[in-house]
Amino acid sequence: ALPLSSLRLMASPLQLTYSYIWQVIRQRNVKQYAKVEEFVTMVTQTVPDLISFKQTAQLVLGLRARIILDLLQKDGPPDSKAIQTLINKLKVLAKDPEVEKSQTNFMVLVQNLLKNPAEKKRFFQVSSAVSPGVVVEDEEYFVKYKN
Predict the structure, then answer these.
(1) Contact by Cβ (8 Å): 44, 51
(2) Cys bridge to 99: 2, 7, 57, 92, which one at CB 3.0-4.6 A?
(3) Which secondary-structure segment (H or E) carries 139?
(4) Which one GO biological process term can you cite for this protein (predicted)?
């Protein structure tokens, strides 16, 4: 194996970061999604025309939502403080009506899952029945929380 110093000579820091981010996404390593968000933010600030604000906001919203759902899915009582901190960060994204609507629907869903353990259990059972580790919008939930 090559020492890290030799690897840096062969690959730029951006390439190494991109490789790391790609591995996080491929492995669906939700614990590292905050790093993916940081990378997306850095790249879109550096190259603003790469993707639209709306696309960036939807991507960041999706990453944050997945982190929140991962916290909710854990056994035992959810870390309400961490979840509330992440929900508060979601509010920053609302500059587009569609993004704002998605954000609002998601926040209502999270609040309901926090308040109702039976619905929380059902929501994650439906999600894991489709594909373990992937959360999907159950038709009943979608209709219930859609504005």
Answers:
(1) yes
(2) 57
(3) helix 139-145
(4) regulation of telomere maintenance via telomere lengthening
